[in-house]
Each structure stands twice: as C-alpha cells, then as structure tokens.
Structure to design on (1120 residues):
C-alpha cells in the first residue's frame, strides 16, 4: 500500500511550481496596476494574459506531455 | 481500353457531350424568362448578376452531368468484382488544371458580379425621397416626408430614387419587395436602410411581385404580413401623399 | 429492458423533483421557464444514471467497482453498451427513425402548401410544425452519418478494438433520447415557432416550448462534442501498426475532420442558446433592444456554429460517398492527398464564412465584401472533392450496385446545391434570394441531396457488414432512381417560386405560385412513398435476406476483411497495415497483412 | 506479427491509454475554450471596451490571488502523488478545495454587489453576470470533482504510476484558472 516517497524529486518539482506561482503573482499585480493607471489598457494587458496563460499551460498543465508517449 | 488511345477517345467523347449539354442549356436559359418582372433600377443590377452566374454555372453543371452520363454508359463493368480498373492514383496536370480553373472561376465571380454588383448597388447614397417604414406584428407602417402614416398601401413615385429607413418595434421583420429585388431586415433598436428606384408603373393587383412582404419569420401573421405596393406617376404621387394627410386627420381625432 | 424502464422512471422523477424544487424555492408555476430548466437538468441526470452511467461508470467515482451491463442479443441495443458497433447501430436506427418522422412532418406541410389559402393548418400550427421539422432534420444530418458510420466504422477501419473512450461514447448516444423527448414534448408547453434558427427576439418572447427546444439542443450539442472528441482521440491514438496518416481510409479522414470542427464550434450554438435562455429565464437583455441588447449578436454567434455545421454534416457524407465510389469503381481514389487537403481547406475556411447568412440583416456593410470573398473561396476545396469523385469514376470498372447508383444521384444533387450556393454567396443576388424558397431548395439540395443521400447509400453499402445479410438489389436500385427523381421533382420547382418572390416559412402564399406548389406537393408524396420501399427492403432483408459474403464488394479496407457482423473487439489478431487502402489494379499490392492465426500463440 | 490478440492489443492499449486520456482532456479544454470565447466575444460585441466606475477591482484582484493559490496547491497535490506522497496529496487537495470554496464565496458576494450596480436588465450587467456565472459554474464543478478525488485518495486509490484521476481533475482546475486569467482583464481591467 505505502510506496516509497521520492523526497528529492518531490522537493525539486515543488520548488519549481512555487517559483512559477510567484511569477504569476508578480505578473498579476503588475497587470492590475497598469489597468488602474492607464486609461485604455487593452493593448498593454494582452502580453500579460499571454504570458500567464503560457506559464500555466507549460508548468501546471504539462502541455508538452501531450506530444510524448507514456507517463 | 486501358491504352492511351482509349483514354483520348473517352476524353474527346465526354468533351463533345459536355459541349452539347452546355449549348443546349445555354440556349434554353436565354430563351425562357425565369426572373420576375423588373420594377426598379436595382432589379436590373441584381438580375444581371443572376444571369451572369447562371451563364457561368451551366458549364460547371454540364461538366459533372456529362461525366456522370458518360461514366454510367461507358465504364460499366460487365465483369465480376475482382476485375480492377486502371491504377491511376493521381495526375498532376489534371489536379493543377482543376485548381487553376476553379480558382479562376471563383476569382472571376468574386469580381463580377460580386464586387461590381456591390459597387453598383452602393454607387449613390443620395435619395430624392425618404420613407420611414416600421415593422410590427403583423403589419407595416410607412411614414412619408409630409408626416402621413400609411398602413394599407405603399404608394411610390416612378423614376425617383427612394430610400427606405426601416426599423421594427417588436421583433425581427424583413422589408422585401420582390419586384424591386431589395431586402433589408427590420431590427428593433436599429435603423437599416435600403434603396429602390421604381422604373415601371404597376400595382399589387396586377402583379404579386409588387408587394411589401415580411421575409423574416415573425410568428402567426408572418405569411400575411403584406402591404400592397403601387408605383404611380410623380404628379399623382404628390397628390396622393397630400390626400393621406387630410384623410388621416379626422381618423386620428376619432381614435384619440 | 430493465435499464430503459429505470431510466424513464428516474428521468421523470428527476424532472418532477427539479420543477418542484424550483417552485418551492422561488415560487411561480411549474411550467415557467426556470422550473422547466431545472426539471430538464435533473431529469437528464436521472435518465443517464438510470440507463447505466451509474452502474457502469459513476460507481467508480465513489470507490465502488463498476457493474457494466451484461445484456446480450437484441437487448444490448436498449442498454448502456460500450461496444462501438452497438452504438453505431443505435445511432443508425434512431436517426433513420427521426428522418422518417421529420419527413412525415414535411408531407403534412406540403399538404397545406399544395394550395394557396388556409386548408387545415392554421399559420401558428404551421410555423411550429415547420420548426420541429427543421430541428429534427438538422439533428439527423449532424449526427446521422457521424454517429452511425463514424462509430461503427472508424475503429474497424483503423484496426482498433473499440473507441478511445467507450463509456463516453455510450453516453453520447444515450443523450439523444432525452433530446428527442424534449423536442417532441415541446407542444405540451406551447411548442416553438421560431424555426430551427431560433432568432431572437422572437425566441425570447414566444411560448414556453422554446425552452425545451433550447435545453434539448444544448444536450444534443453536448452529445456531438463528446462524440467528436472520441473520434478525434481514437484516430489520433489507436491506429493499428502501419496505419499511417497517409494510409487512412478516406471516410476516417472525413469523420476526423468533421469531428474536429464539431468539437470546437458546437459550443457557439450552446452559448447562443444559453444567452436566449438567460434572456427568457434570468431577466438579462442580450438580445432585447430595450436594455441595449443586440439581436444581431445572436446571429453572429449562431452562424459561427451553424454555417460550419453544414460541413459537419457534409464532410462525413463526402467520406461515405468516396468510399463507395472507390470500392465500386475498383480504382484507386483519385488524388487522395489532394482530397484530404480539400477536407482541411473546408474545415479552415468554414469558420470564416458565417456572415454570408447576414447580408440582409443590417450588419455593417464593410463586412459584405470579405464574407462574399471567403464564401466563394470555399468552393475551391469543395471542388477538390468532386475532382476525387469524378477522377475515380473515370475509366473505372463500375459495379452497378445500389450504393453507386445513389452516388450518381448524390453527385448530381450536390452539384446543383453547390452552384446555387454561389447565388447566395453573391451579395447582389442574395439580397433578393435571402429568406425565399430559393434558399429552401438550395439547402435541401446540399443537406438532403448531399448528406441524407450519403446516409442512405451508406446504409446499403455497409448493410451486409452490419447485418450479415444482403439487401434486395433490384428493389434497392428502384429506390435509388425513385429517390433521385422524386427529390428533384420536389425541389426544382421551389427554385422557381423562390426566385419569383415566394418567401420561406409561410403557411400561405399568393395565388401566382399555385401551380409549382401543387406540383411539388404531389412529387413530395411520391418521394415519401418511396421510403416505404426503403424501410421495407432493409427491415425485411435484415431478418430474411440471404446470408452475405463477408466481403461482397471485394473491397480492400479493413472492415471488409472481418466476418459479418464483426465479432466483439473486432480483431482476433492485431492487424498490420502494409499498404494503401485503395490500390486497386496494382498487382501484388496489399492493404492489410493476412490476419490468419498461424503462429499466433496465446502469450 | 506473431502476437496473439489479447497480448498485443493489451500492450498497445496500455501504451496508448495515458496518451488517449490526455488528448481527450485537452480536446475537451479546446472545446470549452470556444464556449468561453463565445461569452467573451459577446461581451466585447455588446459593450466594446466600456468599463463602469462601480467595478470592484480590489475584490477581483483578491479573487485572482485566491484562484492562483489554489492552482499552486493543486499542482503540489499532483506532484505529491506522482512522487508517492499520499499525505501531501490529501493535504494539498484539501487546501485547493478550501481555496475553491473561498473563491466561490467571493464570487457570490461579487454577484450580489454586481446585481445592484449593473442589473441584468442592462447589457453590461447581462454580460458581466453571465460570464461570472459561467466561470463560477466551472469552479463549482471543479470543486465537486476535487472532492470526489480527495475521497478516493483518502481511501487509498492512486499510486505514483497510476494517478490519472488526480492528473485529470488537477488539469481541469488549472484550466478553470486559465479561463480566469482571460476573464479577469475582460471584466475588470478593460
């Protein structure tokens, strides 16, 4: 029932995830302040949406696993 | 029959069949009158486009039909299912020719009648007469420049460029006079416009193409949401329009 | 039978519970839009759980072992069976039934339209009948071929034992009966009279049956999405060794392309209907001018789905017909790669042509020219399909069989459908023709003449594979001619009345159009009678027909290398694909390595 | 080919199963993207880039941070079970569910506030409430799915080489977060 815990792998992966989350947080805050300060922010916000989307798909959703076989 | 001689013979025969079909169908098309009578300048533009598309469509249609007739007559196998045809997998010249011809045709019709027709229809934004038309379930109300509101008949002067400003009070309707070939939806909250320049006198009583018909499904009364159209001489129109105002006044009082 | 009874009971219980709870919470009547909505949702869940989702699937979510249904024989067809062949047959029988029902409604309409004036349908009933006919037939065209042959044939043709997600597959079929029940019970709430297009504001202000239409069609959309997702995944991940993309049978390509399209854009139909539902039930104002809403928004969202939907209908039909033509002409499919490129060209362009339905809608005039150009451009990839079909017939050894006769009728009809489509893509002519019988005739040529002909031709062509018996060939040919001639007699006159000023969706018309309408009505009854021959032939042959050879056409694709009907899990051995499926006439060429069990040891 | 039916097929299927599952899920996301795209485009078509003054931008920023936090805990849950740490799976799944519920409470509050400022009888209100509602519905289904997986996890399901249930649900949760990444500026920042 209990399987061996791969502590090192887990720690490395967790750290990566938290780093990505911090980046997402930073981007969100910058995005927010641009939106509050700039009058017509549409063009300015698009890169932030794209960057956040890419981070989530790449690191959280593992989109590249789609193109590999197996686990 | 597999040799190139057979191939050529088949090609020539199917080509002749195609040609014959094209000639017959084009002759038929030019000798029958399918489109309704033109009562407006816009009808001419639209009918020209219709005719041109048909003239170009007949060869395309005939090609398929010629191929089908020829294949049905000539390539029928008497043998069993194990007898295979020649293993022609593809042919670059045929594919390229096909692509070039279909693309050329698509580009041609896009330019003429497509863009040309569009330009002609939009050539002139001015109008000599503006009539507001309002759709409601299930009747049309036309308001003339002098303020007359008319519900029972749309009377229009001949040889006048008329702009109809169309809207709706409830749901979607569509303004369509088949004799003019013009159509635009009546959209609540929006004023759309369409032009017609009547060129011939006539009335609904003589020709059902002269009717303002609702063309957008609007419920129970949709089919009968019709207003008769009558095209009259300019002088007669002015007199009629003035009459409407005097005729309307007592009626409005009575209603109020 | 038991699961079906359970499903009906749980469905009803769910409906009543949903409606009752709504009334208990917010008051109002159990027949108002909100109560019906929640009733339908709970009823749908009850139905699905009852038919087998609970037993075969949902138990696992709670850590319990699944208990798949063990029914055998004909009872399999009434259960949550995950065999793709069972599901294919379920779809086929269901949608041919819906087709006949929708056709019957058309005959009632033609009875009313035989003479000007009101005969026996009042305009309101007529509009409702016309709307019902429309949506039933649209559903048949969207899901008929993809559901029946897509499910039955795709795994067989690519050498797989089943679809990638068999339970999702069973669910996408069992979502269909609630759709039918929802639509057909709409008259209880006053039915819906806004056509299958459900344009607001009419669809916001009309009677409550419209809500059932909305819920049923959203459910149908969910079924299409799940079905499409399954076909795409199956083709992408489950092909037998050697079945490269370049060796896929053309029907698989067609089903794959149509599924990609269906998977993505169907959501726009769902979204547009959800917005109508919100306008009706939640007091929003998306399409009502009073609150600043915009009726044209619906048309954009709706046609963004509904124009490509035409290609969801017709791409699988292309696939079916090219299969039939290739096998029965006994020649390689002409320009195979070009045809596949044509399919993808159609998929790509189809999402960029929607506004040609709106040239007279009052939308911005700057959109007219681009949409005209893109719409006319789609004739180029469509033309490549004709190139493939005609090129394959050229110098073939045509086997004179019913499916091929129907293929000829199909090519003829679809040519007319395609050419008349140009008149509607051209802004000038469309201004006159939009919303007339010209449009009605045009789309019947593409959808009936294109898709339904393929559904019928396919039901003959794969009949021996599905049933193990042969249909009656001569009766089949008589029907093929009857159908083609009858169909053309009905719809050719309708082009004329449309051009001359008869608008569509009307119960009454000016005296001027009496002649052609009477003609079309008589022809419609002749056409309708022909379907007795069709149904009779297939029903009788399925029970009493002579046993069919496993491969009566001498065809090369994988499904024909198996016994008829194919056994459960299809392939006794993993097939190995070694060549192209259509290399007729090339000496020594093979599609599949022989599937004999020699050397095949139980591992 | 000398493999018997059962063996060869099962081997082939075992190899293609995770691929099929993943592809199927991504296709579902693609489909859902079109649903969100329809609602988002409806908002721009009806209201352009109009932005009312009454928007509660700080609340939206708070909601964004909550959802972002739930995404990282979902990530940690999946990573834990992939490396054999069941306690981690349970802990982080629970956190994710709590954050998801917090988000729903926040959205509920926002909904109540929004109905006053831009009621559904106005076009902006229609779009705003529909889009928030659509996303909220997805969050709700995500929470339910997470709860199902959490329960299975506590009962001993899922192993480092077999945790598709967790992976699938967590991906869905990230997708809901991804949708919010677009919806947040669409509703609150333009």
């Amino acid at each position: 029932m209990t399987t061996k815990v791969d502590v090192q792998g887990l720690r490395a992966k967790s750290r990566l995830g938290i780093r990505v989350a911090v980046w997402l947080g930073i981007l969100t805050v910058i995005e927010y302040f641009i939106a509050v300060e700039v009058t017509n922010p549409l063009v300015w916000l698009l890169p932030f949406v794209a960057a956040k989307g890419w981070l989530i798909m790449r690191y959280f959703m593992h989109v590249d696993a789609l193109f590999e076989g197996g686990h | 029959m597999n040799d190139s001689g057979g191939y050529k013979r088949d090609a020539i025969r199917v080509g002749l069949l195609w040609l014959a079909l094209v000639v017959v169908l084009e002759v038929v098309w030019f000798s029958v009158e399918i489109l309704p009578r033109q009562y407006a300048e816009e009808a001419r533009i639209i009918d020209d486009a219709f005719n041109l598309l048909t003239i170009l469509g007949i060869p395309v249609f005939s090609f398929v039909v010629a191929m089908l007739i020829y294949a049905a007559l000539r390539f029928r196998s008497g043998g069993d299912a194990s007898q295979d045809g020649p293993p022609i997998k593809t042919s670059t010249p045929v594919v390229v020719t096909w692509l070039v011809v279909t693309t050329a045709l698509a580009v041609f019709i896009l330019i003429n009648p497509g863009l040309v027709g569009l330009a002609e229809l939009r050539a002139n934004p001015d109008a000599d007469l503006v009539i507001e038309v309002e759709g409601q379930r299930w009747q049309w109300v036309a308001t003339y420049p002098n303020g007359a509101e008319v519900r029972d008949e749309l009377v229009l002067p001949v040889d006048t460029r008329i702009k109809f400003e169309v809207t709706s009070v409830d749901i979607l309707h569509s303004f369509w006079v088949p004799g003019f070939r013009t159509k635009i939806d009546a959209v609540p909250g929006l004023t759309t416009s369409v032009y017609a320049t009547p060129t011939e006198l006539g009335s609904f009583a003589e020709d059902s193409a002269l009717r303002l018909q609702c063309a957008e499904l609007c419920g129970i009364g949709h089919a009968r949401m019709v207003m008769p159209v009558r095209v009259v001489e300019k002088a007669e129109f002015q007199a009629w329009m003035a009459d409407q105002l005097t005729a309307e006044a007592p009626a409005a009082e009575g209603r109020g | 039978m038991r699961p079906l009874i359970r499903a009906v009971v749980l469905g009803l219980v769910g409906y009543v519970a949903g409606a009752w709870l709504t009334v208990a919470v917010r008051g109002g009547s159990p027949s108002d839009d909100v109560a019906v909505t929640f009733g339908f949702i709970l009823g749908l869940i009850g139905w699905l759980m009852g038919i087998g989702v609970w037993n075969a699937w949902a138990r696992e979510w709670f850590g319990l072992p699944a208990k798949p249904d063990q029914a055998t024989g004909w009872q399999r067809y009434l259960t949550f069976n995950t065999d793709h062949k069972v599901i294919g047959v379920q779809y086929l029988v269901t949608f041919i039934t819906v087709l006949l029902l929708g056709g019957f409604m058309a005959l009632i309409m033609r009875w009313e339209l035989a003479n000007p004036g009101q005969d026996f349908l009042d305009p309101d009933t007529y509009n409702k009948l016309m709307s019902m006919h429309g949506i039933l037939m649209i559903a048949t065209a969207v899901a008929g071929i993809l559901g029946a042959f897509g499910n039955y044939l795709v795994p067989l043709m690519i050498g797989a034992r089943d679809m990638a997600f068999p339970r999702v597959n069973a669910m996408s079929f069992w979502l269909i009966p609630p759709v039918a029940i929802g639509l057909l019970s709409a008259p209880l709430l006053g039915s819906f009279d806004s056509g299958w297009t459900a344009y607001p504001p009419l669809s916001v202000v009309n009677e409550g049956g419209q809500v059932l239409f909305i819920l049923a069609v959203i459910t149908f959309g969910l079924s299409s999405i799940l079905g499409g997702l399954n076909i795409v995944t199956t083709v992408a991940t489950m092909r037998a060794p050697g079945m490269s993309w370049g060796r896929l049978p053309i029907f698989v390509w067609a089903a794959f392309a149509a599924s990609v399209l269906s998977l993505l854009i169907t959501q726009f139909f769902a979204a547009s209907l959800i917005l109508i539902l919100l306008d009706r039930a939640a007091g929003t104002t998306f399409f009502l001018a009073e609150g600043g809403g915009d009726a044209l928004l619906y048309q954009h969202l709706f046609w963004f789905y509904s124009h490509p939907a035409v290609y969801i209908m017709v791409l699988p039909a292309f696939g079916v017909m090219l299969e039939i033509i290739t096998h029965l002409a006994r020649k390689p499919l002409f320009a195979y790669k070009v045809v596949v490129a044509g399919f993808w060209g159609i998929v790509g362009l189809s999402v960029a042509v929607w506004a040609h339905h709106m040239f007279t809608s009052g939308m911005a005039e700057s959109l007219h020219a681009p949409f005209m150009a893109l719409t006319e451009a789609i004739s180029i990839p469509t033309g490549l399909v004709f190139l493939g079909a005609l090129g394959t017939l050229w110098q073939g050894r045509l086997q004179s069989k019913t499916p091929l006769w129907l293929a000829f009728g199909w090519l003829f009809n679809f040519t007319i459908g395609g050419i008349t489509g140009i008149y509607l893509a051209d802004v000038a002519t469309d201004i006159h023709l939009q919303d007339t019988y010209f449009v009605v005739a045009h789309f019947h040529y593409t959808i009936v003449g294109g898709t339904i002909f393929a559904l019928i031709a396919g039901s003959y062509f794969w009949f021996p594979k599905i049933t193990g018996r042969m249909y009656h060939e001569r009766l089949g040919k008589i029907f093929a001619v009857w159908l083609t001639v009858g169909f053309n007699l009905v719809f050719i006159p309708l082009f004329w009345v449309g051009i001359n000023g008869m608008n569509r969706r009307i119960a009454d018309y000016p005296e001027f159009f009496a002649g052609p309408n009477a003609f079309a009505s008589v022809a419609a009854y002749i056409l309708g009678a022909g379907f007795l021959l069709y149904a009779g032939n297939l029903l009788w042959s399925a029970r009493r027909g002579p046993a069919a050879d496993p491969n009566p056409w001498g065809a090369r694709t994988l499904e024909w290398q198996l016994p008829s009907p194919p056994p459960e899990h299809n392939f006794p051995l993993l097939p190995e694909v070694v060549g192209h499926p259509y290399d007729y006439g090339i000496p020594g060429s093979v599609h599949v390595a022989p599937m004999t069990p020699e050397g095949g040891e139980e591992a | 080919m000398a493999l018997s039916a059962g063996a060869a097929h099962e081997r082939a299927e075992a190899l293609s199963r995770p691929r099929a599952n993943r592809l199927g899920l991504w296709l579902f996301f693609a489909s859902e993207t079109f649903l969100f795209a329809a609602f988002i485009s409806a908002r721009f078509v009806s209201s352009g880039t109009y932005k009312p003054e009454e928007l509660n931008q700080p609340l939206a920023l708070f909601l964004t941070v909550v959802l972002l936090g739930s995404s990282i805990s979902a990530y940690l849950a999946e990573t834990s079970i992939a490396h054999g740490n069941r306690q981690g799976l349970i802990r982080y799944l629970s956190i994710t569910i709590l954050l998801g519920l917090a988000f729903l409470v926040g959205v509920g509050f926002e909904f109540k506030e929004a109905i006053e400022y831009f009621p559904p009888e106005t076009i902006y209100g229609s779009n705003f409430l529909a889009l928030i509602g659509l996303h909220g519905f997805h969050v709700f289904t995500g929470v339910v799915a997470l709860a199902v997986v959490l329960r299975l996890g506590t009962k001993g399901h899922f192993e480092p080489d077999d945790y598709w249930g967790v992976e699938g649900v967590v991906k869905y949760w990230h997708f809901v977060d991804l949708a919010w990444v677009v919806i947040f500026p669409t509703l609150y920042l333009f």
Notes: The mean pLDDT of chain B is 91. DSSP finds four helices and eleven strands in chain B. The longest helix of chain B spans residues 41-74.
